[in-house]
Amino acid sequence: MLCCLKRIEADIREVGRMVEADGSCLDVLQQTRTIQQALNQVNALMLRNYLDTCMAVAMQASDLDARASAIAALVKVFEVVNEL
Asked: CA 67 to CA 59: how far, in whole Å?
């Protein structure tokens, strides 16, 4: 995942250079769309990791408060994603 984030960081720097050089608006838009798609992939990977680790552990716990807390955190994630 870190390699994906570093690639996104490099792409963002490239967009900055494009803007500074008065690059084509369409080229900038295409690049930012590519960055957004890459960020969406990182978000999906993070969510999958959360579900496979934190959520799985919480659901196996006998503590109902831990389960409720994990579910509330997951709902919050979906609320934030839907705001985008």
From this structure: 5
> Of 55, 45, 59, 60, which Cα lies nearest the Cα of 76?
55
d(CA 55, CA 66): 10
Domains and CATH numbers, the chain: 2-83 (1.20.58.1000)
Query: What's this model's pTM, rounded to 2 decimal places?
Result: 0.74
Whether residue 43 contacts residue 62, with contact meaning beta carbons closer than 8 Å, is answered with no
Residue pair 18/35 in contact by the 8 Å Cβ criterion: no
Q: What is the pLDDT of residues 47-76, one digit of tens each?
A: 888 888 888 888 888 888 888 888 898 898
